[in-house]
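Feature request, filed as a ticket because there's no other form

It would be nice if the structure record came with a short human-readable summary line next to the tokens. Right now we just get the raw output. Example of a typical job, pasted below so the devs can see what we mean:
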Amino acid sequence: MHLDCNADAGDGCEANVRTDIENCGGCGTRCDDGGAPPPHTRPACLEGQCVFLCTDDLPFGPMRNCFGADPMIGDPVKGCSAQLACDPRNCGGCGVVAPVDPRGDHICIGGNPLPACPNGATNCGAGTCGLQCKDLNHDAKNCGACGRQCPDSSISAETVALLATKHIVFTCDGPNPAGGLPGCKPICDASLIPPHVWRDCNGDLEKTVADPANPAFDGCELDTFENKDNCGACGNKCNEVCHTKPSSTTLEQVCDCPPGLTWCGNECVDTTNDPHHCGSCQGDCLGPWEGGNGSPVCIDSQCTYKCKAGFADCNKQLPDGCEVDTQNFPAHCGSCGHACAKDQRCGNGECQVQDCSKGPVK
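Raw output as currently delivered:
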């Protein structure tokens, strides 16, 4: 249902009071009062009623209100508190309870209720979302057994500190082929924060471990993180750039860009369809991104402007985007240049002589 809420005949029946957050159910009824909405929600107008809709925000994933009649509608105070990706009592959906595992825990990973940790992992407790499930063969903080950290007490704290200055850390080197606990193996440091990928290019890692105080041995001396001449490995030379592989959680280093993509400052992009790099790295398509009833787009390396449904760029001027609401504007009713008669209004893209809330004259 549309109403003329701004009393301007020029834009016709501009307000859809079933969905308009500024005119919800009637002219002037605002759903967004400027205050902060309840947790994990956003204000919305749904069938003419102001509500708070649950959001799907990172890092929380899908959030729902599992205490209400509709899980998508947030509580006015508590909002949407159920994290479906991790909540063992609402795992993947409201009321879905993960089974009890051998430890007495409930495991929910990615919205999947599991009877136990995935194969190859052990529940060491102190975590949710699967973080309690540890790989005892390769977890340096749970090596062979929950809570056993690498390096163990057989290596002195002084030695550990000396090796750290030469970028050597310890990992869990399992499984143990002879049985028993896995060993703790010294390796070059590859840390996410701050990002580093250290490598031993002169081959003295073992000598450094054996004699860490000896200044002649430098351990893992070369940082190959985004190193164009040594990209992730000693001597791996790139033509243009060395960067971290997209979506990599291990700082995997790769040279240049895949075929068809171009390196533009800090990412590989497809200049044939990227509106910020259209035709070239500097090809930023013009036109308003917000408030223009549309957005710039790049098609076959050429910039254009795509209007939202029901809007049109009738003056062919990019600065104001798609300035005409063709659903309600009498001079451009339904399309640019299609004008209604003087005694007609424009509603839902058709010329009308009846009230805004009624349909077009047949």
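Something like this underneath would help us a lot:
The chain has two helices and 26 strands.
Residues 25 and 48 are 4 Å apart (CA to CA).
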